[in-house]
Amino acid sequence: MEKHEGPGAPAVRIDDPWYDALAAGWGESADAEAPDGAGAHAPAAPGAVPRQQPVRSASDIYLEVQRSPAFQEVRSRYRRFVIPAVLAFLLWYLAYVVAATAAPGLMARPVSGSINVAMLAGLGQFLSTFLLTWAYARHARLRRDRAALDLRWDTQEMTRGTQR
Predict the structure, then answer these.
(1) pLDDT tens, 85-104?
(2) For residues 83 and 163, is the Cβ–Cβ distance under 8 A?
(3) Would 107 disulfide with which of 10, 118, 136, 150, CB 3.0-4.6 Å?
(4) What does the mean pLDDT of the chain come to?
(5) If we measure between CA atoms, which residue out of 38, 40, 42, 13 comes closest to residue 27?
(6) Are 57 and 163 in contact (CB under 8 A)?
């Protein structure tokens, strides 16, 4: 076998011992099998360059998924919960810090025995952190996880066999 290189070289030479058109899926057609199951495949025409499926890169697939309405819906559900929750929590935290520094008399006011307003507000910070974590996990489970999982499976199916 001669080695040909350059722009005029054929893509695959038929006399190549490593070339098997049927194993590569080239040269097969839907009506190539006989109805009796004999399986007579039509060989590829000599010198014909087989057609290949266009190969999409993984980055093209991920961009397509990112632009899809399903992905946009998952992101908007995420943002509709996270942005207000973060703002509310930051305002609550800043109110606690400002009250502790600007109104020490208010924070030192006793509520019950040795427990004062500052202690209750500090414990409220911990409680609100746990409450926010629970609310986020519940929101994700009920409103985003199924759609995100479906997107993940679809993306994995699309990226199977792509160039990376």
Answers:
(1) 999 999 999 999 999 999 99
(2) no
(3) 118
(4) 79
(5) 42
(6) yes
In this predicted structure, the answer to whether residue 133 has a pLDDT above a threshold of 90 is yes
Three-state SS at 148: helix
Crossing angle of helices 58-67 and 69-102, in 10° steps, is 70
Residue 119: C-alpha distances to residues 62, 87, 98, 109, 122 (Å):
49, 23, 15, 10, 5
User: Looking at the predicted structure, is the pLDDT value of residue 39 above 50?
Assistant: no
In the chain, DSSP assigns E strands to 110-112, 115-116
CA–CA separation, 28 and 35 (whole Å): 15
- For residue 50, give both structure tokens: 């087989």
